[in-house]
Write a structure and sequence with these properties.
Blueprint: H1 13-31, H2 35-39, H3 43-52, H4 63-84
Length: about 80
């Protein structure tokens, strides 16, 4: 059996630079820091600050909510099947 290897799309240096500029600008706006301050930061500090200003990850519905909705749909399906008989 041959496994398919997923090809990674490599970004060009220009695309990486555009992304980095957007991140720098976003951090400048959200933190209210001057660009000079951000540009003088070590990269590790920059990424740490950038991560602290990111939006929290979106959460899906709770498992119990999904199960309750499935039970409701099963009940509706059962009732519609009973009414056809």
């Amino acid at each position: 059996m041959m496994r398919r290897i997923k090809k990674e799309k490599r970004r060009s240096a220009e695309e990486e630079w555009i992304i980095l500029k957007r991140q720098i600008y976003r951090l400048s706006v959200e933190a209210g820091w001057p660009l000079e301050y951000i540009l003088e930061m070590p990269y590790s500090s920059f990424t740490e600050c950038l991560l602290s200003f990111q939006d929290p990850p979106r959460q899906g519905p709770a498992v119990r909510d999904v199960e309750a909705e499935l039970d409701r749909l099963k009940e509706l399906n059962y009732k519609s099947m009973r009414s056809r008989i």
